[in-house]
Amino acid sequence: MDYNKHFELLKKTDPDIYNALIGEERREKNGIELIPSENYTYPEVFVTNGSVLTNKYAEGYPGRRYYGGQKYTDIVESLAIERAKKLFKCEHANVQPLSGSPMNQATYLAFLKPGDTVLGMDLSHGGHLTHGHPVSHMGKIFNFVRYKTHPNEKGRIDFDELMKVAKETKPKIVLCGYTSYPRDYDYSDFKKVADEVGAITMADVSHIGGLIAGGVMRNPFDYGFDIVTTTTHKSLRGPRGGMILCKKEFADIIDKSVFPGLQGGPHMNTISAIAVTLEKALQPEFKEYTAQILRNAKALAETLMKNGAKLITDGTDNHMMVMDTTASFGLGGTESENVLDEVEITTNKQVIPDDPNPPLRPSGIRLGTPCATTRGMKEDEMKQIGKWMTDVLKSPEDKELKAKVKTELEELCKDFPVPGID
Ligand code: DSN
Fold it and tell me: Right CATH number for 49-281 from 3.40.640.10, 3.50.50.60, 3.40.50.720, 3.40.630.40?
C-alpha cells in the first residue's frame, strides 16, 4: 500500500476533502493543541487505521466468528487483547467498542436493568455525559445518582457522604472516572463504598488511560476494581476507539454485551491500530513520555496561577487543568476559547463545578499537555505558552499583542515537529 499515492489520488478525485485535510494538517502543525482529550497519534496508526482491514467484516471474537476469511483479523484482535491485558494488568480485555460512549453503554447494559441505580460523578464536577447526565440516553434508562467534589477542598470527594448516599440508594454500580477533574482518585475508598452495598466497581479512565499504562497514575485493578473502561485516543495516543477491561468472571457478560448486545461488525482496521498503540505503550520510552506529560502539566499550571489564573482544585495531579476564566480575567469560557484560538492556542470551553452558566457559555476552559508533550515540548515551553495565554486573556482586545504572540508561537512550533505529519 502506497500511502502517498493514495493521497495524490484523493487530490484528483475529491479536491474539497483533500484541501480540508491539508488545512487540518497545517492547523495542527502551526499552533499548539491544548485540549486534554486529544493527542497526535503514531504514523503506524495512520497506516493501520487506513489499511485493508477496513474491508473486512468480523462479527464475533477470535476463533468464533460469523463470517469466513478471519485468519488475519484473528491475529490482530488476539494481539490487541493480549497486549491490553499485559499493559493494564487485567484478566480480560474487549477491544471492540467503537468509542467511549458505546464502551460505557455496553458496560451498563451488561449489568443493569432499566431503573437500576448507578453512583457517578456530576458532569460539572468532572464526570462525563455517559456517567448519567440527564440529556444522555443512559441518564434516562438508569437511575444515576451523581456525587460532587467537596467545595473549597481542592477536589477532594467526601467519602463519608458517598457512603451515606450509597446505603440510601443501593447502587448496582459505583462508578468513578472523569473528563474534567485534575486530580487522581483514591480507588480504595470507592471500593469500600461498593463493597458495603454489594455493588460492582467501575472506573472510566479514558482521560488517563495512557498515564495508568505508563505507570505514573494509580491503576484501579491494583485496588480490586471489577471493570475499567478507557478510550484509546487520548493520553494513550492511539486511534479513536474504546476498550473494556475486567476480571475474568465478567468476561463473558461483557463480550456478549458489546457483541451482539450493542454493536455489529467490529472495526478491524481500528483494532489493528489499537494493537500497534498498545505495543508502543509497552516500551520503556512510553513511561518517560507519560512522566513528562505530568511534569509539563505541573509547569503549565504553576505558570498560569503565578500569572493570575484561578485553577479549579488549585493545581493538577494529572495532565489537565480547568481554569475559571470568569473569576480570573472577567472573561467567559467561550470568549476565552475564541481569543486563544485567534493566536492558535487551542483549548475548550468548560463548565466549572456548579457552573451558573450553560455548557455552550460556561465560566471556564479546560486544557492539558499530552499533545505538546508528544511534540517533544518540555517545562520551558510550557512556561512560555502559559505566559502567552495569560497575557492574551488579560488583554483580549490588544491586536498588536495577539499578532506578536501568534508569530512567536508559530516560530516555537516549527522546532517541535508533529509525528505523522511533519
Ligand atoms: N470528548 C471527550 C473529552 O473531551 O473529554 C469526552 O467524551
Answer: 3.40.640.10
